[in-house]
Write a structure and sequence with these properties.
Layout (H helix, E strand, L loop, with lengths): L15 H29 L2 H27 L14 H29 L6 H23 L6 H30 L4 H28 L9 H9 L4 E11 L5 E9 L8 H13 L5 E8 L4 H5 L1
Parallel strand pairs: 2-3
Antiparallel strand pairs: 1-2
Length: about 300
Amino acid sequence: MGHNHEHGHDHSHLDVHNMRKAFIWGIALNAVFVIAEAIVGYLSGSLAILADAGHNLADTASLVIALLAFRLALAKPTQKYTYGYKKATILAAFANAIILLITIAVIVYEAIERFSSPVEINGKVVMITAGIGILINGFTAMLFFSNKEKDLNVKGAYLHLAADALVSLGVVISGAIIIMFGFHWIDSMVSLIVAGVIFAGTWSLLKQTLRISLDGVPHNINSEKIAKEIESVDGVKSVHHLHIWALSTMQNALTAHIVLKEEVQLSNIQKIKAEIRHRAEHLGIQHCTLETESAGDKCEHEAH
């Protein structure tokens, strides 16, 4: 006996409406900043600023990808896509992790190149531009901060913006040191440090997205705890064939065979299922499909 169910009162549930607004703010502000950087870089002849404009353009594109994924996740299921397009958020998070790794590789490559051939930097122009970058990326990153552990797509966006703010901070620090001491190599050193900080967060994002892409149990779900919680429900003897996976970066699903105690009456089965779904949701599971069998019916259990 199977049943699908979805609740809407998960206390850790992501506020999708506010997140959409955060993405729109992030895209708009970063797009304006990219245009401003490109103009300043062209007029000042600063290759560093033009390169950063290209980097920020890639990050703006990643925010667009994440926003589109959120919109796809809300689309209604179809006959061909019975779960809808919820997994688009997982693909977007994975794509953003890859983009971040490419960004890190570019930063490291440029830093190593500049160690051997230091680039003359107009400290004041670069510092002012980078300072504006800190304000814009820092502000938009904070829009995602409170929800970054609830959704991998949001975490990816947060890491992009936080990385940009860190890069800009590094540019300001190196610019100040160059102005005061003329140490042009400091720009490369700070870039390598920033790349290391970004990599630490990106590696975690990549591992998590790979895990749920392969239908692994999401990192914030404890399958043993869920099994024990189900078995603690009155009338349940045991649980087997328990499978947990991510439908999207926002929703998790569960299927399980529930072995009921022999004394359980048919009229109580729906009540037991409702209690299991209620407890599962408070442990991060939004969709449950449950099949029940009596303790005396071992045929199906032994067949698997």
